[in-house]
User: Fold this.
Amino acid sequence: MAYRIAAVDVHKKMPAIVVSDVEVEGEFQFERRKFGAAPGEMHVLADLPGQREVEDG
Assistant:
């Protein structure tokens, strides 16, 4: 059963997010993105887990 997880690394000038497709017995696939600290970029970062269908755990 595959599922998606996300981790957010918050820095003052460059927040980042990693979204991973996880398979129970398989390989991981990662999407890494870095953002600036501007409000518009923070909104994109905040919306990304929902867009990638990350499960709320």
Observations:
- The chain has one domain: 2-51.
